[in-house]
Structures are given as structure tokens and as C-alpha cells.
Design brief:
Elements (H helix, E strand, L loop, with lengths): L179 H4 L46
Length: 229
Amino acid sequence: MSHTGTNGPLAPNNCSTCHSGAYIAVNALAKPSDHLSTTSQCDVCHKNYTTFAGAVFNHTLVTPPVAGRCSSCHGVTAKGKNSTHIPTTAQCDTCHKNTTAFAPATMSHSGTTGPITTGNCAICHNGSYVAVNALTKPSNHIPTTFPTGIPGNECSLCHRSTSDWGSERMNHGTMQTSCATCHDATSPYLGNMFKINRSRHNNAGTKDCSSSGCHKPLGKFGSAYSKWN
């Protein structure tokens, strides 16, 4: 077959003249049933006229445009999410902006399954997705399930930024006792909390900050959770 000798010579947008299914008997093949969904001409991706293989997919020339429609192909006939991908039902281009390589991607929390606004951070930030940079709590993170009254194991209760872990604001919840767990000078936990040496602090000894009757919320001095005196 000499493509240059056809009626309607080989040129952009003329492939379907023959590759429509009408000339299969003379080997002018049409798209197979599992071909990527597209109404574009063959030569948008196929550059070799002796074999269909070795095609380079051109996202920018697909009709209709692929933006927001990634799942039409990815996970059906084109490569989909791997087993270690973070949970999401969002379209690929919510995070992946490069159509020639999936990496690098910029995480969009608004596109996750259970967006950050509903308090579902631990779905990804639980240690299962560290390889894709969904970090988990370090070993010296402050306790998040005790003492009684602490809000619980949910990142967004304290961490207000999805790009900077350090911009946190402590949420004490309704906790009224066990302050020294974090505020004692010997506490091993990370954070900007004020720490004291109780053995040198007004003869406090081993007394707890609040339940000793000194500092609020149970004591009489300062403001609960914000000021000691």
C-alpha cells in the first residue's frame, strides 16, 4: 500500500477515509473494540504507516478534549492507578499536570476521597502511603488519643495547612487533666508547647498543672489552654 497514491492523499485528518471499517477486506484496518475512546484521526497519534504500534498519544489533539475526562481511558484501556496510589475518585489531571509522565504530581487535597474538610486525613496519612509522600505521624508526635478529652487521631484538628505541617494550632478539646504529659520538661514530644521543670516550680513536685488547682481549666490561674497565669 502506498499512502501517497490514495484518493485524498495521506495528510492530516484524512485517515478515516479508508480506516473506517469499510475497507478491512483490503487490510485498511479500523480501530479495534478496545481502542482508546476518540474521534480524532489516526495520525494524531500513529506516526508509522506500516504498523500501528509505537503510537505516541497526544492529549492536546484529542476530540473531545481530555481535560477532566482522564478516567474515560485511564483504568479502562490506558494505564490506571497502581495499587499504592492514594485513595481518590478524582480525575487524574486534578493532580497530574504532565500528560507525558505521571510524575511529578502536585497533590490536591480537594480531590481526595473524603476531602480534608470532612476530617479524613488519616485515610492517607496513616503510614500506608509514605512512598508517595503522604507522611504519617513521627514517633515523638504528641498523643492524639489520650488523655481523656483530647479530640482524637485526626490531623486537621490541629494542622491547618496541607503544605506545611509546622503551621499547627493545638486543639486541647475538653482535656482538663494530665497536662504534664506534654508540658513537663521531660516530655519527649514535638511541639511548641511551654515546658516546665516541676521540681523547681513553686514546689509543684509531681503535681499536674491543672488538677493541682493552680492553672486553668480546673485551677484558678491564667486562661485555659492559652495562658499559664
